[in-house]
Specification:
Strands 1, 2, 3, 4, 5, 6, 7 and 8 form an eight-stranded antiparallel beta sheet that branches. The protein has helices at about 15-20, 100-110, 120-130; strands at about 25, 30-40, 65-70, 75-80, 90-100, 145-150, 160, 175-180. The protein is about 10% helix and about 25% strand. The chain binds a DNA duplex (13 and 13 nucleotides) through strand 3, strand 4 and helix 3.
Length: about 190
DNA sequence: TTTAGGATGAACT
DNA sequence: GTTCATCCTAAAA
């Protein structure tokens, strides 16, 4: 939890906590990360559970890479790779508090009714920031069109913990973390 | 070559 | 609360 840069993030759930508050930027748009989930190679719910495949290859790169996958044939979901190269673990970005390029986000998500509809879910934030397959494997450090700026480590009291969402395996692992923020997606974590 | 099913969101009743 | 849209990957055949 003492990581100074994204490249220092280790392959454990503390990385998901450390990423809370970080600013995720893609092109003109940016948002503050308010909800994350941790996934690991030992985790039956993870795409890397069965080892490397052409699809999940980016998750085996060094910490600080991006892994984007298609969900239910419809949505894109963005993950920040953590841990050493060769070990498949990553943190799913589940919700953002919009910061910049908010007009652009509205134009990409015309069905949103409230500002908190723009990025309050993993598929929504990818639509709002225009993240898709072409971004998978990108390195978030060297300021391309995608980047990530770490914030100060969050106060432990400010972090809510819960079980992960939308999975059928290992649902009991308390690897979902969030702030108490209106942009957090549906079943809100407690504690 | 075929097929099953998934880390979701939106539009229904 | 329930349904459905819809695509890609991985694994089976």
């Amino acid at each position: 939890m003492t990581a100074d840069t994204v490249a220092d993030l280790t392959a454990d759930p503390t990385s998901a906590v450390r990423l809370l508050g970080a600013v995720f930027r893609h092109g003109q748009c940016a948002g503050r990360i308010v909800e994350t989930e941790f996934y690991d190679q030992t985790d039956p719910a993870s795409h890397t559970f069965g080892g490397p495949t052409p699809r999940n290859q980016p998750m085996f790169e060094a910490a600080g890479h991006l892994y984007v996958y298609r969900s239910y044939g419809i949505h894109w979901c963005a993950n920040i790779v953590v841990g050493e190269p060769g070990w498949g673990s990553a943190v799913l970005v589940r919700a953002l508090a919009p910061l910049e390029g908010i007009d652009l986000m509205w134009s990409r998500r015309p069905r949103a009714k409230k500002a908190t509809d723009l990025c309050s879910g993993p598929g929504k934030l990818c639509a709002a920031l225009d993240v898709d397959r072409t971004d998978t494997g990108q390195y978030l450090i060297d300021g391309g069109r995608i980047s990530l700026e770490l914030a100060e480590p969050p106060e432990p009291d400010a972090v809510l913990v819960g079980r992960r969402v939308g999975i059928t395996k290992a649902v009991d692992r308390p690897w979902r973390f969030s702030f108490d923020d209106p942009n957090v997606s549906k079943p809100r974590p407690r504690r």
